[in-house]
Each structure stands twice: as structure tokens, then as C-alpha cells.
Amino acid sequence: MIFNETKSPLIRAMTRDGSARIFCTDNTAIVNKACAVHKPSNTAAAALGRILAVTSIFGVMLKNKKDLTTLRFDGDGPSGTIICTADYNGDVRGYIQNPKADVPRKPNGKLDVGSLIGRGNLSVIRDEGVKEPYIGISPIINGEIGDDITNYLLTSEQTPSVCGVGVRIRNDKDTGAAVCTASGGFILQLMPGADEATVLKLEKNAASFSSVSSMLEKGKTPEDIIATILDGIEYDLFDKVDTYYKCDCNREKFSLGIKSLGLTELTALLREETGNIDTICHFCGENYSFTHEEVENLLEELKDKYRKKLEERKKEETNQ
Ligand SMILES: [Zn+2]
């Protein structure tokens, strides 16, 4: 399911001399969907928003249309595991183990995403659907996401890169819920044989660059961010794609999930629950409600399957 209200632009550009490429996204609308689904603390919303931005960019870097990429942060901080998955179009979904977990702000007033995530491993999984998925693992440097991704790209993929991400959160004055006012990120990568003069200019621009979230909050666009980072360098803007919060869950998958409970648990569930049985997707919050009768039918299907298996086994035994 694609959530149309989450349309978020993602732009790609390349320096004219082929020295560097850059991807930049404003994923504010996507992060607000994640906030609606997970009802996170402010710091958890910022963590999720940053990882969603990077994952969308990793998505559009994929080579084949059916590929998927997953970023998984397994830190020892209170947020627990955070998992985001994107496809070739940059459409993305995210999950956080403990969305309510929070930590105090840093002395400078910023949300302390690094302490919320803690230390551990970052895994990047690239699933091309046919072979075994490719998995790259690197340590979480500081849990602030930008530095972790920069380190991953350099050490695991041997690509010198700079990753910048930022999320601004305020609280709704009535409900207190986390609301995202600006979120986005960029990944700048040097290409093999990059021109030294261009690299020097990029380093100078990167050093004076303020932050993605402050620019977006002032109404700037991903194009403006790219123009600032590539200031003084000739470049071409390539495709601008719209990315969305997207989940591949459906009723069929959830009915299979119910069946996977097995005979004993399913029988117990039907005894306890007299009304509808609700299942909720951890990634998009969609509720799939099954009537008592529907679940009874699933149980019957399961019983049939077992009966057939038993008969087959008996046949085999008598043939022996
Ligand atoms: Zn879902």
C-alpha cells in the first residue's frame, strides 16, 4: 500500500567533471506518517526520520527494479532495534522496537539521537530476490546516523562519502504528539579518479554547511541544499523522484501469519476471543480485522493440512 499523502521529493545530481554525485531528499511527509504509525517520543521520531531519509537514498541507488534494501541499527540504547526498508523507487517503511523510549536533550538543546540508539552494529542488506542477500556490517560510530552511514560507505563499500541528516520535531499543542516540521538528508559520494580541485571545493563547502533540517525549516528545497553543497562547482540535476511511505503488507500475508500460530495456539485464541480478531502491521499501522468465523475457517484449513499429512505418512508406512 502506498500512502499518497507522504509524497517526498528525492533529487540526484552529478558534478559535470564526474568527480562526485549527490542525492538529497526532503522526507518530512514520510516522517509524519512514521509518527502517526509509531507514536514515538521526540528523540525516537528524529532517529526514525534520519534513518528513513538515508534508506530512501539507498533505495534509489539500487541497480534493479525488484531489489530491496534494508538498514538495520542494532544499538544497545533504549530505542532497541530500528529497521527501515526501501525499494528501487526510494519508497520506504520503518519500524522501531521501543518508540516511547526517550533520553534527555544534549546540553546544546538538540535531540540526543546518539544516546537513544547507543552502540552496536549497522547492517545494510541488499536483496536482489534471486541470490542470497548481500549483507554489509559496520559498527555504529556515534548513533547520530550521518557519521554511521559515512563510516559504513567508506569501510564496507570503499566509497568516500559524506552523509548529512537532520530532523526537527515539535509537539502538537493539544495531543502532545511528536510532529515533524522538517526532515531530510543527503549523501555526497566521490567517484573514482575524482578531480582534486573539485574535492577541495567540496570539503570547503561541507565545512561551512549549516544543517539539512535548518535549511528545510526555512523553506529551502533539496535543490537549494544541493546548490549550497556544490557551490562553485558545475553540476547537472538529474531525475527528481517522488518517494512515499509504502508497506507491502496485505490481508493474505496476515491470514498466513494467523495460520502460522499452529493448531494449539489458534484453538486457544478462538476460545479466548469471542469477537473479531485484529492484527496490526508493525510497519504501517494498518489493521486487518478477521471475524471469528474467518479465523475458524483458517483453523479448519490447518486441520485439513495436518490430516492430509497424516494420511500420507500412513500410506508411506503401509508401503514399506
Ligand atoms: Zn503494513
| N-to-C order of helices and strands | EEHHEEEHEEHEEHHHEHHEEH
CATH superfamily heading of the largest domain: Hsp33 domain
Uncertain spans = none
Q: What ligand species are in this complex?
A: zinc ion
CATH topology of the largest domain: Hsp33 domain
Structurally, how many domains make up the residues? 2
| Largest β-sheet summary | 5 strands, antiparallel
Mean pLDDT comes to: 95
Portion in helices? 25-40%
CATH architecture of the largest domain: 3-Layer(bab) Sandwich
Question: How large is the share of residues in beta strands?
Answer: 25-35%
> Total number of β-strand segments?
12
Radius of gyration: 23 Å
Span between N and C termini? Answer: 51 Å
So what's the CATH class of the largest domain? Alpha Beta
Structural class: alpha+beta
Gross morphology is: globular
Q: Spatial order of the strands in the main sheet?
A: 8-9-2-1-10
Helix count?
A: 10
Give the SSE layout:
Blueprint: E1 2-15, E2 20-26, H1 28-38, H2 42-60, E3 68-75, E4 82-87, E5 92-96, H3 113-117, E6 120-127, E7 134-139, H4 146-155, E8 161-171, E9 178-190, H5 196-208, H6 212-217, H7 222-229, E10 235-246, H8 251-259, H9 263-272, E11 277-280, E12 287-290, H10 292-319
Antiparallel strand pairs: 1-2, 1-10, 2-9, 3-4, 3-6, 4-5, 6-7, 8-9, 11-12
Helix pairs in contact: 1-2, 9-10
